[in-house]
């Protein structure tokens, strides 16, 4: 049995816990995201993706959208995925479009027009969606969840932030 980390940060943690040599197997994005053509939009698109669940912290994305509305900053907010009814209701109340059941081509299309991708997860490493955003040339604003620093280069491909106040500035 060989422990395998999804990135360098996760591998370091596994090595400490298991006291065994650890291998790294980083995630990859589908080639369609690399091949997509960037499309400029008049109103910036702020995108997030994943199941609407406590672990993904959709309430933070809803708060971000609400702050943009209050400040009268033009932006469209879209969460790709569905799930928890309460979380979806909170997103919709903040003006976020919840896009459920999209096909692969529709997801690639949304990434090609996104201005920024935001990951609000409470934990876990860089998700497949972060890798897809980066492959599409979309800057990411992500939490300090383990491994995000491996994927997002601070100030170059996006920002690793700790609190909603920081996310507003970074977005």
Plain-language structure description:
- The chain is α/β, with parallel strands linked by helices.
- It is about 40% helix and about 15% strand.
- It contains eight helices and eight strands.
- The chain has helices spanning about 10-20, 30-35, 60-70, 85-95, 105-115, 130-135, 150, 165-170, and strands at about 5, 25, 45-50, 75-80, 95-100, 115-120, 140, 160.
- The strands form two sheets. A six-stranded parallel β-sheet has the order 5-4-3-6-7-8. The chain has a two-stranded parallel ribbon with strand order 1-2.
- α4 (about 85-95) links the parallel β4 (about 75-80) and β5.
- The radius of gyration is 16 Å and the shape is globular.
Brief summary:
The protein has a 6-stranded parallel β-sheet. The termini are far apart.
Write down how many β-strands occur, each being a DSSP E stretch of 2 or more residues: 8
| Sheet with most strands | 6 strands, parallel
How does the helix and strand content classify structurally?
Answer: alpha/beta
Unreliable stretches covering 5 or more consecutive residues? none
Shape: globular
Fraction of residues in β-strands: 15-25%
Order of helical and strand elements: EHEHEHEHEHEHEHEH
User: Level of helix content?
Assistant: 25-40%
Termini separation: 42 Å
Helical stretch tally:
8
Radius of gyration: 16 Å
Q: Averaging pLDDT over every residue, what do you get? A: 90
Strand order of the largest sheet: 5-4-3-6-7-8
Give the arrangement of secondary structure elements.
Layout: E1 4-5, H1 8-18, E2 23-24, H2 31-35, E3 45-49, H3 58-70, E4 76-80, H4 85-93, E5 97-99, H5 104-113, E6 116-119, H6 128-135, E7 140-142, H7 148-151, E8 158-160, H8 164-170
Parallel strand pairs: 1-2, 3-4, 3-6, 4-5, 6-7, 7-8
Helix pairs in contact: 3-4
């Amino acid at each position: 049995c060989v422990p395998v980390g999804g990135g360098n940060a996760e591998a370091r943690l596994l090595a400490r816990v298991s006291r065994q040599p650890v291998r790294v197997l980083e995630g990859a994005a589908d080639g369609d995201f690399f091949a997509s053509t960037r499309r400029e939009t008049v109103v910036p698109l702020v995108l997030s993706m994943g199941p609407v669940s406590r672990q993904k912290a959709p309430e933070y994305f809803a708060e971000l959208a609400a702050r943009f509305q209050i400040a009268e900053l033009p932006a469209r907010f879209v969460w790709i995925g569905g799930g928890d009814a309460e979380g979806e209701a909170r997103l919709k109340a903040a003006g976020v479009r919840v896009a459920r059941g999209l096909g692969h081509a529709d997801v690639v299309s949304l990434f090609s027009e996104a201005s920024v991708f935001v990951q609000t997860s409470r934990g876990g490493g860089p998700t497949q969606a972060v890798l897809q955003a980066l492959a599409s040339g979309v800057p990411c604003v992500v939490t300090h969840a383990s491994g995000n620093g491996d994927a997002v280069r601070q100030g170059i491909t996006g920002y690793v932030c700790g609190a909603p106040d920081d996310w507003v500035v970074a977005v």
